[in-house]
């Protein structure tokens, strides 16, 4: 399967199956994003909570100014593909949230705007703190902002031309089923943690059957979570796992390329991040080989239902994925 794009429902827009993820891009994001685009990335996955949207936007603008790409060549998602943050779920704040993102990134629209978490946190004025916090005085404070009202506002962003597609992230099947009962515009994508330790096979298959594309984050497993999660500290890094290394050696590829290839062979998009230009290029080179049935069987055995992006890892006592 050398398909390099996924077609989104409703618009039939072609979303690149591999993009560049902006989480933890803290040092000179302008240069990093410019480098990613220069090396062939056409999907940029960002979020307000990453605190780098201004730099990411400058990197995009620089690449366009130099003629490397045109705006229409780029598929930009700003949560996280781009993402709406939790403190702005109330219908009164959704438009202001995307306006802030567009202003910071110097964009007229985003290709895909997604809800980062289905957690309606109490609104915090951006003039006080932006983006808003998970905790206020050490506690999670929720507000009464129902998902059906939020989704209607997301659909309004489409009608206004501010977002071409809308999607969701970190939703479970029950919440998706409920959303589908009232959505006029079906979510284009679902973004979830997905790697060999957390394969979520049934969820992925069911979501794809609904005509919703799936994007995997944290394709390399525990590596990004060792400062947050005890399980991430003790788990064998997937990039160093004997099974993954053996498959990589067989195909004369890197462990990272094997992990990314594993997802895209399931028609799942990936958004890896690296600060090294060599690895940025390498991560994009996943279309020159295929995993065989034995590779897939060996990787299947690694599934432990081991989630690293649990809210409990951040001392947020919400069992979101239970």
Q: What does the secondary structure layout of this molecule look like, with pairings?
A:
Blueprint: E1 5-7, E2 14-16, E3 20-21, H1 29-38, E4 43-47, H2 53-65, E5 75-79, E6 83-84, H3 94-105, E7 110-115, H4 147-159, E8 163-169, H5 173-182, E9 189-193, H6 201-209, E10 213-217, H7 230-234, H8 242-251, H9 255-264, E11 268-270, H10 277-284, H11 293-300
Parallel strand pairs: 3-4, 4-5, 6-7, 7-8, 8-9, 9-10, 10-11
Antiparallel strand pairs: 1-2
Q: Care to describe what's here?
A:
Residues 29-303 form the NADP-dependent oxidoreductase domain. This is NADP-dependent oxidoreductase domain-containing protein. Keywords: Oxidoreductase. GO terms for molecular function: oxidoreductase activity, acting on the CH-OH group of donors, NAD or NADP as acceptor. With 322 residues, the protein is α/β, with parallel strands linked by helices. The protein is built from eleven helices and eleven strands. Strands 6-7-8-9-10-11 form a six-stranded parallel beta sheet. α1 (29-38) packs across α2 (53-65). The longest helix is centred in the N-terminal third of the chain and has 13 residues, at 53-65. The two termini are 33 Å apart. The model has no long low-confidence stretch (mean pLDDT 93).
